Amino acid sequence: MLERTFFMIKPDGIARGLENEITGRVERIGLKLAASREINMALEEAASLYQPHVGKSFYNGLIRFITSGPVVTCIVEGENAIKRLRELMGDTDPLAAAKGTIRGDLKEAAVINEDGIIKNLVHGSDSPENAKREIAIFF
Ligand code: IDP
Ligand code: MG
């Protein structure tokens, strides 16, 4: 099924200059960047994106992290884009992420920031419902 999903390079990826490395990997598996924009995420946008995580121990730190520097927001399009992009990203914990994945291959030596947040370079929607919801926040 042809799908659109929300993809984002997080502040740690931008700070390390990995934009082209990361978008190149997305394109190499045959997915298309239908839109791409660098922004400084507003607090309201961050709260909306991470609404499903409200109440979790890492929520406040996650909001601080995602608003700590520029991010690149994207719409990614292609056959089964949601699942294929999540597979390309790898496990949430970069130390558990497989070789060949963005999180596994490009992780830093220290994957936890000063707030206890896992720095894992990228975000991708986890379901068709969230893809629709997340795209609408930023595009
Ligand atoms: P995902 O990005 O792989 O979909 P989610 O569970 O949706 O993972 O969590 C959103 C983000 O919050 C993660 O990418 C990571 O940056 C951070 N995070 C998730 N779980 C933890 C945790 O247990 N401790 C610290 N940070 C976490
Ligand atoms: Mg998620």
Could you please describe the fold and organization of this structure?
This protein is of the alpha+beta class and 139 residues long. The protein has one domain (2-138): 2-Layer Sandwich (Alpha-Beta Plaits), CATH 3.30.70. Helix content is 40%, strand content 20%. The protein has a four-stranded antiparallel beta sheet with strand order 2-3-1-4. The radius of gyration is 14 Å and the shape is globular. Bound molecules: inosine-5'-diphosphate (IDP) and magnesium ion. Inosine-5'-diphosphate is lined by residues 58, 62, 92, 116-118, 120, 123, 126.
State the total count of DSSP E strands. Answer: 4
Question: What's the CATH C level?
Answer: Alpha Beta
- Net shape: globular
Going by CATH, the homologous superfamily would be: Nucleoside diphosphate kinase-like domain
SSE arrangement, N to C: EHHEHHEHHEH
Q: Summarize the amount of helix as a percent range.
A: 25-40%
Please work out how many helical segments DSSP would assign: 7
